[in-house]
Amino acid sequence: MIETIEFGKNYHWIILHADFLTNDTTDYQTLGLDEETITYALDRYERAHTEYQTDTDTFTIIYNVLKRTKEENHYETIPITFIAKKQQLFTIYNDDNAYIIDLMKKYLAYNNQISVVKFLFVGLFLISESYFPYIEALDKKQEEVSRKLREKITKSDLLTLSDIATGMIYLVAATNQNTILLEQIKGQIIYKQFDKIEREQYVDSLIEAKQLSSMTQLNSEIIQQLYSTYDNILNNNLNDHMSVLTVLSIFLAISATVTGFFGMNVTLPIKNSPYAWLVIIGICLVLCLIYALILRIILWKK
């Protein structure tokens, strides 16, 4: 699928679906695109990066976009490709990031008289902006799970917190890559060609990307700290339970030792006494009390 929208001073926004480019009969040269760029665009695991080819005046940006549907109970990101070439802006997308195309179309409907570079940075701004509602939703979910865990630590709530933490790791990595990409543009030759309006839009996109990166980093650290805290609580609870079981096992061992001694097939002083069982119980109780007293003294000294 290919769609062309005209804007500004005879500029063209050419929208390409990835499925269209995977067709072997597609002639990339007629679109003015090279095979290497197409290979980057079709790689779902391509890292965010930027490249400027001076010989063809081609400015390529691969940017991380939030995937709105969850994968294994957490959010991930997927790349989208922008190629600015003279009076054309190519955007290569797929079904998972098609909503960005809709956002850009809405913007263009009310702001038609803009340049190719400004529209490119507007797209990057809209991508960063689209993250925030989902980050805020994850933050609210984290607070909800945290409240439940304060009342009672359950496996299901810990797994939910783990899924949120895993998703935040993906988002932190993706937003950091986007920020680094935008910062690198300043060092490229094409940056000197931007006019005042284009540079202002570039700065806006960079600020938005930095804010998003800081927000995701902060949320990730909070979630990691919470997860670590509840993990420590579980370990402490386990240690307490093991201590109780150890004390109980020692008490049982005392009784087992005494009854085992009197259970031997040898002649004992109280063997024929009708109160022998009371004597055995008494010995067990006395030894248990002595052990309890010693244990109490040890704990008191600590």
TrEMBL record:
Subcellular location(s): the record lists:
Membrane
- MF terms in GO: metal ion transmembrane transporter activity
* Membrane-topology descriptor: Multi-pass membrane protein
Family annotation (InterPro entries)? CorA-like, CorA_cytoplasmic_dom, CorA_TM1_TM2, MgTranspt_CorA/ZnTranspt_ZntB
Q: Name one GO cellular component term.
A: membrane
Q: Which domain of life is it from?
A: Bacteria
Transmembrane recorded as keyword:
yes
CDD domains in the cross-refs = EcCorA_ZntB-like_u2 (cd12827)
**Where is the secretion signal located?**
none
> Which UniProt keywords are present, listed alphabetically?
Membrane, Transmembrane, Transmembrane helix
**Key word Transmembrane helix present:** yes
One Pfam short name? CorA
Q: Where would you find the membrane-spanning parts of this chain? A: 244-263, 275-299
Q: Which PANTHER family match?
A: CORA-MAGNESIUM AND COBALT TRANSPORTER (PTHR47891:SF1), TRANSPORTER-RELATED (PTHR47891)
UniProt lists the family membership as follows: Belongs to the CorA metal ion transporter (MIT) (TC 1.A.35) family.
Q: What is this protein called?
A: CorA-like Mg2+ transporter
The scientific name of the source species is Enterococcus cecorum DSM 20682 = ATCC 43198
Which lineage? Answer: Bacteria, Bacillati, Bacillota, Bacilli, Lactobacillales
